[in-house]
Automatic annotation (TrEMBL):
This is Thioredoxin-like fold domain-containing protein. InterPro entries: Thioredoxin-like_fold (IPR012336), Thioredoxin-like_sf (IPR036249). Residues 6-67 form the Thioredoxin-like fold domain.
Length: 87
């Protein structure tokens, strides 16, 4: 018997997150165990931070943040480059 693939979907409960959950569930196979995790729970938020989640929705598969979800999020350099904090 093959081990299940653990899929974690980090969600804030918004419509965009719901779409991501639906997509993951539609792609999941019998070997996938999909868990939808609420980022409003502090333990979930800590797990997400440990994985490098910087924005939601985000998906981790077998403890690795999916490449589509890595490197996103708010960062000071990008905000300043867009003009934030400048007259």
């Amino acid at each position: 018997m093959t081990a299940k693939r653990k899929v974690e979907v980090f969600s804030a409960g918004c419509p965009v997150c719901a779409d991501a959950v639906a997509l993951v569930r539609s792609l999941a196979c019998a070997s996938c165990e999909v868990d939808v995790l609420d980022m409003r729970d502090s333990a979930v938020a800590q797990r997400a931070k440990a994985l490098g989640v910087r924005s939601v929705p985000a998906v981790a598969i077998d403890g690795q943040l999916a490449s589509c979800c890595a490197g996103r999020g708010v960062d000071e350099a990008s905000l300043r480059a867009a003009g934030l904090g400048q007259p």
